[in-house]
Amino acid sequence: MAAKSRESNKKQGPETVNKKAYRNFEIVDKYEAGMSLLGTEVKSLRSAQANLDGSYARVMGSQCWLVGATIAAYQQAGENNHEPTRKRKLLLHKQEIHRIKIKLEQRGFTLVPLRIYFSKRGQAKIELALAKGKRQYDKRRKIAEREQKRDISRDMKKYRK
Predict the structure, then answer these.
(1) With contact defined as beta carbons under 8 Å apart, do 57 and 29 qualify?
(2) In terms of CB atoms within 10 Å, which of 45, 67, 116, 139 comes out highest?
(3) Helix (H, G, I), strand (E, B), or coil: what is residue 4?
(4) Where are the alpha helices (DSSP H) in 35-135?
(5) Full-model pTM
(6) What is the pLDDT of residues 1-59, one digit of tens each?
């Protein structure tokens, strides 16, 4: 039993993380979606050659699309390569798409990709977040709070001895 739990904690493959999303957005809700990819795109993802900076997801009609994500061309593909910045279809349930569409129509919400990873079954998945953009003063306030906590813990460390 214990060996199985240890094995499930292992990563299945490389992971691409959008670090700027956590800094620039306040995350409200998260969704997991599959991705419709070409073979060369999967090979590039397995070699960790993807970039999510500046990318977003958009609902067009009754489908969800990933726009602006870059998956580098696969070196060994030759002429049969994919376009690195093409729109990619995201696989979500209709109810999820409908819920997301209603939220996106409200002012200030954006659908931001957080990370691309491989599931236990070897399928490429993307974690999306319904997020609100942070203002500059919110970012400054968060930095100030973090520094205050650090200073307090540093001062308390002196008295613990």
Answers:
(1) no
(2) 116
(3) helix
(4) 39-46, 94-105
(5) 0.75
(6) 455 544 554 557 788 888 888 888 889 999 999 999 888 888 888 888 888 988 999 99
